[in-house]
Amino acid sequence: MTEENDTIFGKIIRGEVPANKVYEDDDVLAFEDINAAAPTHILVIPKKHIVNLFDAEEEDAELLGKLMLTAKNVAIDQGLEEDGFRLVVNNGAGVGQSVFHIHVHVLGGRNFSWPPG
Questions:
Q1: CA dist 22 → 6, 9, 44, 93 (Å)
Q2: What residue numbers bound the domain in which 41 lies?
Protein backbone atom coordinates (compact mmCIF):
# COMPACT_ATOMS: atom_id res chain seq x y z
CA MET A 1 0.00 0.00 0.00
CA THR A 2 1.27 3.44 -0.84
CA GLU A 3 0.59 6.69 0.94
CA GLU A 4 -1.40 8.16 -1.96
CA ASN A 5 -4.18 5.70 -1.15
CA ASP A 6 -6.53 8.17 0.50
CA THR A 7 -9.63 6.43 -0.84
CA ILE A 8 -12.26 4.97 1.47
CA PHE A 9 -10.68 1.58 0.77
CA GLY A 10 -7.27 2.83 1.89
CA LYS A 11 -8.90 4.01 5.10
CA ILE A 12 -10.55 0.60 5.58
CA ILE A 13 -7.21 -1.16 5.00
CA ARG A 14 -5.55 1.07 7.61
CA GLY A 15 -8.40 0.51 10.08
CA GLU A 16 -9.48 4.16 10.04
CA VAL A 17 -12.97 3.26 8.79
CA PRO A 18 -14.79 0.15 10.03
CA ALA A 19 -15.94 -2.59 7.66
CA ASN A 20 -17.64 -5.93 8.10
CA LYS A 21 -14.68 -8.05 6.99
CA VAL A 22 -15.27 -11.56 5.71
CA TYR A 23 -11.64 -12.35 4.77
CA GLU A 24 -8.21 -10.79 5.21
CA ASP A 25 -4.60 -11.79 4.65
CA ASP A 26 -1.37 -9.91 3.94
CA ASP A 27 -2.36 -9.10 0.34
CA VAL A 28 -6.14 -8.81 0.09
CA LEU A 29 -9.20 -7.83 2.08
CA ALA A 30 -12.85 -8.78 1.52
CA PHE A 31 -15.76 -7.03 3.19
CA GLU A 32 -19.49 -6.44 2.80
CA ASP A 33 -20.52 -3.57 0.52
CA ILE A 34 -22.54 -1.02 2.54
CA ASN A 35 -24.55 -0.21 -0.61
CA ALA A 36 -25.41 -3.79 -1.48
CA ALA A 37 -26.84 -4.42 -4.95
CA ALA A 38 -27.71 -8.04 -4.14
CA PRO A 39 -28.43 -10.14 -1.06
CA THR A 40 -24.73 -11.05 -1.09
CA HIS A 41 -22.42 -8.21 -2.14
CA ILE A 42 -18.80 -8.53 -1.09
CA LEU A 43 -15.92 -6.33 -2.24
CA VAL A 44 -12.50 -7.92 -2.67
CA ILE A 45 -9.60 -5.46 -2.78
CA PRO A 46 -5.82 -5.68 -2.87
CA LYS A 47 -4.00 -3.95 -0.04
CA LYS A 48 -1.65 -2.52 -2.65
CA HIS A 49 -3.11 0.64 -4.14
CA ILE A 50 -3.86 0.16 -7.85
CA VAL A 51 -6.38 2.64 -9.27
CA ASN A 52 -7.87 0.21 -11.82
CA LEU A 53 -6.78 -2.28 -14.47
CA PHE A 54 -5.39 0.50 -16.64
CA ASP A 55 -2.80 1.16 -13.90
CA ALA A 56 -1.95 -2.50 -13.26
CA GLU A 57 1.54 -3.61 -14.26
CA GLU A 58 2.99 -7.01 -15.16
CA GLU A 59 4.34 -7.19 -11.60
CA ASP A 60 0.72 -7.14 -10.36
CA ALA A 61 -0.30 -10.30 -12.23
CA GLU A 62 -0.01 -12.60 -9.20
CA LEU A 63 -1.92 -10.16 -6.99
CA LEU A 64 -4.70 -9.80 -9.58
CA GLY A 65 -4.94 -13.58 -9.80
CA LYS A 66 -5.19 -13.73 -6.02
CA LEU A 67 -8.14 -11.30 -6.20
CA MET A 68 -9.97 -13.75 -8.45
CA LEU A 69 -9.20 -16.78 -6.29
CA THR A 70 -10.19 -14.88 -3.16
CA ALA A 71 -13.46 -13.89 -4.85
CA LYS A 72 -14.13 -17.57 -5.59
CA ASN A 73 -13.38 -18.61 -2.01
CA VAL A 74 -15.52 -15.81 -0.58
CA ALA A 75 -18.39 -16.87 -2.85
CA ILE A 76 -18.11 -20.44 -1.59
CA ASP A 77 -17.96 -19.24 2.03
CA GLN A 78 -21.08 -17.14 1.40
CA GLY A 79 -22.99 -20.18 0.08
CA LEU A 80 -23.05 -19.09 -3.56
CA GLU A 81 -21.51 -22.23 -5.03
CA GLU A 82 -24.78 -23.92 -6.04
CA ASP A 83 -26.56 -20.98 -7.73
CA GLY A 84 -23.45 -19.13 -8.87
CA PHE A 85 -22.34 -15.54 -8.57
CA ARG A 86 -21.38 -12.56 -10.68
CA LEU A 87 -18.02 -10.80 -10.61
CA VAL A 88 -17.86 -7.15 -11.61
CA VAL A 89 -14.80 -4.96 -12.09
CA ASN A 90 -15.49 -1.36 -13.14
CA ASN A 91 -12.62 0.49 -14.80
CA GLY A 92 -13.24 4.23 -14.96
CA ALA A 93 -15.89 6.69 -13.86
CA GLY A 94 -17.82 6.33 -17.12
CA VAL A 95 -18.70 2.71 -16.33
CA GLY A 96 -19.46 3.12 -12.66
CA GLN A 97 -16.14 3.04 -10.81
CA SER A 98 -16.70 5.31 -7.83
CA VAL A 99 -13.77 4.29 -5.62
CA PHE A 100 -10.48 4.60 -7.45
CA HIS A 101 -8.80 1.56 -5.91
CA ILE A 102 -9.24 -1.61 -7.96
CA HIS A 103 -11.84 -3.96 -6.52
CA VAL A 104 -13.94 -6.95 -7.45
CA HIS A 105 -17.64 -7.10 -6.62
CA VAL A 106 -18.89 -10.58 -5.68
CA LEU A 107 -22.67 -10.53 -6.22
CA GLY A 108 -25.12 -13.33 -5.56
CA GLY A 109 -28.26 -14.50 -3.88
CA ARG A 110 -30.66 -13.45 -6.64
CA ASN A 111 -31.17 -13.83 -10.38
CA PHE A 112 -29.35 -11.44 -12.68
CA SER A 113 -30.20 -10.40 -16.22
CA TRP A 114 -27.92 -9.97 -19.20
CA PRO A 115 -26.65 -7.64 -20.42
CA PRO A 116 -25.98 -5.70 -17.21
CA GLY A 117 -26.35 -1.94 -17.05
A1: 22, 15, 10, 27
A2: 8-108
CATH number at residue 44: 3.30.428.10
Q: Is 103 an active-site residue?
A: yes
For residue 75, being part of any structural domain is answered with: yes
Whether the predicted model's global pTM rises above the 0.70 cut: yes
18-67 per-position pLDDT tens digit: 999 999 999 999 999 999 999 999 999 999 999 999 999 999 999 999 99
Distance (Å, rounded) from C-alpha 7 to C-alpha 103? 12
Asked if residue 116 is part of any domain, the answer here is: no
Selected catalytic residue, list 41, 49, 101, 103:
103
Peptide bond into 115 cis (omega under 30): yes
